[in-house]
Specification:
Layout lengths: L2 E2 L2 E2 L2 H11 L1 E4 L5 E4 L8 E5 L2 E5 L3 E6 L5 E6 L2 E5 L2 E6 L6 E4 L6 E2 L5 E6 L8 E7 L15 E7 L2 E7 L2 E7 L4 E4 L5 E4 L5 E7 L12 H4 L6
Antiparallel strand pairs: 1-2, 3-18, 4-5, 5-10, 6-9, 7-8, 7-10, 8-11, 12-13, 13-14, 14-20, 15-18, 15-20, 16-17, 16-19
């Protein structure tokens, strides 16, 4: 096993570490289906590449238009045609939504990054789709983990995904159309060189969102008596 700048070069070791740390990389156009593990709290199914996806009653599907200019959210029962990436989340039934994908973000994030909510969570814990803009010569965070899965689609730009701990790191190139499925507790971060990296991450659970008595309508109401 050779280590070059903490990059593991042995193919068998790379594959075993991907499984150990919990990451899957899918190339543009690659057809694959990735489902939740038996120890996940929330059930999801990722359809990479071209698929006709059947969405059952009680579920919903996040997917991209063929031209990658629109994000769509459809509740079941329905069938959707997906050319790039579709993720079905079980037990969540929001109304149907569409959103133009614009890469101009409006919320600051760490290390000079910025973000925008494409589909914000209606309530605390609901899924959310984001745009993440990682500027040139930056890192989207220090090495970190999430408590639930992230399904990330590379919309534009190039960079690297680093997964692992200490000197056991997998370094994977990121470019348009690449899909990264990060299982819960997977230690990782993304890096860039000379251009912006625009990522669409889907969080199957959000740690923020409206509560019964903490939302704009409630907080914007002031009693007269």
């Amino acid at each position: 096993m050779d280590l070059v700048n903490n990059k593991i070069e042995d193919v068998s070791t790379i594959e075993s570490l991907k499984e150990l740390f919990g990451v899957q990389y899918l190339d543009p156009g690659q057809r694959a289906i990735v489902s939740a593990n038996e120890n996940d709290l929330y059930f999801y199914t990722v359809y990479a590449g071209k698929h006709q996806v059947k969405v059952e009653l009680g579920d919903c599907c996040y997917f991209l238009s063929d031209d990658k200019k629109t994000a769509l959210l459809q509740r079941g029962p329905c069938e959707v045609t997906s050319s790039h990436l579709a993720t079905v989340i079980r037990g969540y039934m929001p109304e149907n939504k569409t959103s133009e994908i614009r890469t101009k973000t409006n919320l600051p994030y760490v290390n000079g990054c910025s973000t925008k909510q494409v589909f914000a969570p209606d309530r605390l814990g609901d899924p959310t789709l984001q745009i993440l803009d990682i500027p040139p010569y930056s890192s989207e965070q220090a090495h970190h983990i999430h408590s639930t899965v992230r399904v990330a689609y590379i919309l534009s730009g190039t960079g690297r995904s680093i997964v692992g701990m200490n000197d056991k790191n997998i370094v994977e190139s990121l470019y348009p159309g690449k899909i990264v499925v990060l299982e819960k507790m997977c230690p990782h971060h993304f890096e860039t060189d000379g251009e912006h990296l625009i990522v669409l991450p889907l969080h199957v659970f959000s740690s923020v969102g409206a509560l019964e008595n903490n939302h704009p309508m409630f907080n914007g109401t002031h009693m007269t008596e």
